[in-house]
Design goal:
Length: 272
């Protein structure tokens, strides 16, 4: 006979986990159902499949230059991700592998920048981009995201698990530091790169506030800005907004599910 206390504990545990899972998935379910309903039905709170999905999709593709805004978002996200991984992994590798008196002080100063809210940096960044003539360009969106203190911290912590014997053996074989990094460190830390790729890509794809400030023409706007403009219209069509939100979510879902295993390994500090 099962222990009643253990059975009750299992019921409560699974019930709590199930409730949290439902609360996590429910917004996506509501979004999908909303895409099939008219704006009036969504306002009424209808939670059943409707018959206006084709109409909402047609309206969205009519009102939005979908290939252009997705290209803008993809270009910004991919550029920001690749540059951030390159710069942050080099910085994390350097902070861990090279020892000096000022290393820890510089590292602590960098971590302190995490406490500065982005709202305090917007005006100085905007002035800098204006003087550089980069307003209304995608470069202005990408540049401030390259030096990510959090990703540098993440790479340094992961580098602590990197076998120092590999680096020592490579030096004995005559490899230079850049060769050690490129041919040994990067392949060994690929799960860390995968986890960082997902984090940075999702952040860059969903970035809203800074692109809203620096991207001023319709030809440069991203999918998040377009959806926001649709939702803030005088008479917003929420069915069309739901369609756009679903389409904007698909790339991040695809990246996460495609690299899910590597993401878990990277977050657990797996080194191969």
């Amino acid at each position: 006979m099962k222990n009643p206390a253990r059975a009750a504990s299992a019921v409560l545990t699974y019930g709590f986990v199930g409730l949290m899972a439902f609360l996590s998935v429910f917004p996506f379910i509501w979004m999908v159902l909303g895409a099939t309903n008219s704006s009036i039905d969504i306002i009424k709170g209808r939670l059943a499949p409707g018959e206006t999905l084709a109409v909402n999709v047609a309206k969205f593709f009519t009102q939005v230059n979908v290939p252009l805004v997705f290209w803008n978002s993809a270009k910004i996200a991919i550029l920001a991700t690749l540059l951030t991984l390159a710069v942050s992994s080099l910085a994390g590798y350097g902070f861990e592998m090279f020892r000096s008196r000022r290393r820890d002080g510089l590292y602590r100063a960098m971590l302190l920048t995490l406490m500065i809210p982005f709202a305090a940096l917007m005006i100085p960044l905007f002035i800098m981009m204006g003087k550089a003539g980069l307003i209304n360009t995608h470069i202005a969106v990408v540049l401030p995201t390259i030096g990510s203190a959090f990703i540098v911290f993440y790479f340094r912590q992961s580098t602590k698990a990197f076998p120092s014997e590999l680096r020592d053996a490579a030096k004995v074989d005559g490899l230079k530091e850049w060769q050690i990094f490129l041919y040994i460190y990067v392949p060994v830390m690929r799960s860390t790169y995968a986890a960082a790729f997902i984090i940075v890509f999702m952040t860059a794809w969903n970035n809203y506030l800074w692109p809203l400030i620096v991207l001023q023409s319709n030809e440069t706007k991203t999918i998040t800005l377009v959806i926001s403009s649709l939702a803030s219209a005088y008479y917003p069509d929420y069915g069309v907004v739901m369609v756009g939100t679903i389409l904007a979510t698909l790339p991040t879902l695809a990246v996460f599910f495609f690299m899910q295993r590597q993401f878990v390994q990277g977050m657990l500090g797996s080194v191969k």
